[in-house]
Amino acid sequence: MAEFWAAVVAFYTGTFGVPVRVLTIIVVASLVRLVLQLVIRRVVNRVISGVKKRQNVEDTAALQASPVAAMRIVQRTRAFGGVLSSTVTTVVVLVSLVLIVSAIDPNATGAFSLITAALGAGLGFGAQNVVRDVLNGLFIVTEDQLGVGDVVDLGQATGVVEAVGIRVTTVRDVNGTLWYVRNGEILRVGNMSQGWARVILDLAIPYDADIDAVKERMLQTGIEMRSDGKWKRLMMEQPEIWGIESISADAIVLRLVVKTRTGAKDDVARELRARVKRTLDAMGIRVPALGVAAGGAAKVGGSDDTPVIPGVVKPQATPRPPTTGGKK
Q1: Average pLDDT score over residue span 231-236
Q2: Domains (ranges, CATH) in the chain?
Q3: Which whole-number Å values give the CA distances from 154 to 5, 61, 92, 157, 271, in the listed order?
């Protein structure tokens, strides 16, 4: 046995010792990275599978109708797993490089210290943005500001979060464009997937219309929609009439609101508009002309909806997490 280990030592210190040591370091580093990545992936999958099992669903998209905490666990776990995987890769690569340099030239330790000091000084100036990106990315994930699958407004881009890396967060907008946003440049996060959302429907009606009758029928239309089994699980509360939002010479703007689940806001809004339109037709009410009503409604603040007026071009819909083809 002693002869065997003596032969191994002689092999590593012989003519081909340096290449062999370098190769060994690379192989070991690759195996360590692979094992850690598998562990991280396994833990993430087990957490997600546990949440799905408790909620009795098979697809993550089905969690939209489940308690908010379950969806947040899945999204946060995926985001944290992505950041942790990137961190592991970075650490393994850096440690491997140090070991390879030491294997090539054992006397390079002193020189390497000087190089490290120089690199540290360089990080303080040239690479400070990279350090800021990394630190900000860690804070974003640990504070649960966003997660994979969230619909967010980052200022630079608005869309569905597809990945959260150690330096960059990728967001897919409603047009399908994939945006790469540096974590250090994210100064604010508007998360539209946490808690609940609200549909705000502003309706412009003629000035001489019976306001009380219209308000009653609008509210009744919303309540009837919520009693429908298809929409009941998506509308968290009964619709409310907030009253008159603005008045002009020819139009009065009424506001109807309803609290919904985050992933169902646009679907509920579209269906509610269609039902309100049919209600107005049944009442024989014609909305004012575009120019007249829009002038009064333009003063309405805080609404994500324009008055229900024929010919109005609606703004782009809020992007939603994909319901098919996504992560299971």
Answers
A1: 87
A2: 2-191 (no CATH), 197-297 (3.30.70.100)
A3: 59, 23, 31, 5, 28
